[in-house]
Fold:
Amino acid sequence: MSERIFIGVAWPYADGPLHLGHIAGAYLPPDIFARYHRTKGNEVLMVSGSDQHGTPITIKAEQEGKKPSQIVAQYHQQFLDSWRGLGISFDLFTSTGTANHADVAQNIFLTLLDKGYIYKASVAQAFCPHCQRFLPDRYIEGTCPYCYSSKTRGDQCDECSKPMNPVELIDPRCLLCGTTPQFKDSEHFFFRLSAFRDRLLDWVKQQTHWRQNILNFTLRYLEGGLKDRAITRDIEWGIPVPLDGFEGKCLYVWFEAVIGYLSAAKEWAKSGGDEEKWRSFWQGEVKSYYFIGKDNIPFHTIIWPAMLMGYDGLNLPYDVPANQFLTIEGKRLSTSRGWAVWLPDYLSRYDPDPLRYLLSINMPETGDVDFSWREFIRRNNDELVATYGNLVHRVLTFVYRSFDGCVPTPGEFDSHSQALLNKAKDTLNMMDELLYWCHFKGAIRLAMSLAQETNRYLDEKSPWKIIKQDRQASATALYIAISVLCCLRTVLYPFLPFSSQKLHEFLGFKGNIEDGGWQLHFPSPGQRLLPPEPLFSKLDEGLVEEETKRLGLPDS
Ligand SMILES: [Zn+2]
Ligand SMILES: [Zn+2]
Structure:
C-alpha cells in the first residue's frame, strides 16, 4: 500500500552560499529519503525555501551597502542553481518572502492569539547608546549563561544549542561597535510555550523511533522546564504583526520561518491547481519528517510541535532525523573566515555524485565527521571508480563487444550464481529497512559490499577468459553480473542519481529509474544495451594540495 510522506527541510538563510556542512547536515539526507520513497511508489512532498528575513540578512546588507531584498534575491537564485547542480529534488523550494507565506504566518499568529496562546507583555529590548538604535538579537554577543561559551549570539548558543534571550547573556556587547547595550522596555507578543510542557513531554516520550541523541536531548530540555518566548521584534525587515498599533514590529524570524513548512505545502497545492491538496500532507495518514542540522533541534522537536498543538488540526512531526556537524580537515568549519568548502565552488569543478557518495558513506548521523580532500579523492578513486565504476564498465563493455550489444541468454545458475542473486535480493531488502528508518550510512555501505562481492564473483568466473571455450558459461556469469547491476542501479539511485540514471540507460532501460520500483529486475535476454561509457573519472592526487590551499583560515 502506498504511503504519504511529507519532508520538511531546514530553510537556509539567504545571506551566503551553501557549504558542505549544510549539505551533509540537512540537504543530502532528505533528498536520499525522498528518492527512496518515490522509487517505492510512495507519494512524497519535499519542501523548503530560502529564509529571507531575520538579522543575518540585514547585517549582510549593511556590510555590503545593499538592500536586504537584493541580498536575498541573489542567494535565492544561487540556492536554486545549487539544488539543480547537486540533484536535490525539492517538489517546491520557495522563500519566506512570498505573500502566501505572510498570509499563512499571520493567520497562525492570529489563531494562537485568539486561543490565548499568545499574549502581550513588556520586554527589555537591547538598545545601543553609541549606535542609537534597538539591537536585534543577532547584533548582540556575549557569554552563554548555560555553557559559558564566549561569542554566543543573542538568539541561540552554537555550542550548547540553547535558544537565548539577549538579556540572559553574560557581558553582552553590541556587535557593531562593542558597546555594552542598555535594555529598554518595548511592548511585544509572547508565545505561551510553558503551557505545552506536559503535553510535549507525553508526546516526546512516545517517539521511541527517534534517534537516541535527539530523543535524549529533547527530553532533557523539556525536563529543564520551558519559558514563554517573545515572538515579535522591533525591526522593519520581516512579516508585520497583523494588528493596528504595532507598526514597526515584525514576527520574529524563528516563529515565522518554521511556519514555512505549512505555507510551502499550500503554495505547492495552489500551483498544482488543487488548493486543498496540501491537506493530504498535513492531516490524516501521512508521516512528516523534518531534516535539519543539530543546531535546529529544539525548534523542530519542541517549539514547532507546540505551535502545531496550539493551532490544532495539523500533524505533528513523525521524525526529526537531525544530523551532527561536519568538520573540515580536522577543524571546525568557519564561514566568516572561509574555512569551508562552498557548494557552488565544488560544483564548478566536480561532478555531483562523488560528493554525494562521500557525504553518504561518511554521514554525520550520530556524531560529527570530518571532510578532507584526501579522503574525497581516495574514496572517489578506490571506491567509486575502482570498486563500482570498473565493475560496471568491464561488464558492459565486454558484453557490448562480445554479445552484439545485447543482454546474453543465460544457462542454468550454479549455486555460486544463485548465492550472488540472493545477496542482491537481501541487499535490496535490508537497504529498504535501513532507508525507511533514515540510516543512510549503513544503507550505502551494503550496496558497496554487494559491488565488492560481484567483483569477487567475476574474478572467479572470469567470463572474459572462458568465452572461447565455454560461451554459455561466460554468458551466464555476465547475465548474473548484469542482474546485480540492475539491482545496484536501483539501490544506489537515492544516493547517486546521476550515475544511476546513466547506468539505467546503458542497461537498455527507458524512462526514469523511479518508475521501475524498489525491486530486483532481471534483464530480458536480448535486451539492447547502449554503448557504455565510464560512470566516474579518476581524480589526480595533486588536487589534495590544490584544494586545501583554497581554504581560508580555521576558527581560532
Ligand atoms: Zn551555551
Ligand atoms: Zn553599537
Observations:
- The longest strand covers residues 118-128.
- The mean pLDDT is 95.
- The CA atoms of residues 471 and 546 lie 49 Å apart.
- Residues 128, 130-131, 174, 176-177, 179 surround zinc ion (ligand 2) (CB under 6 Å).
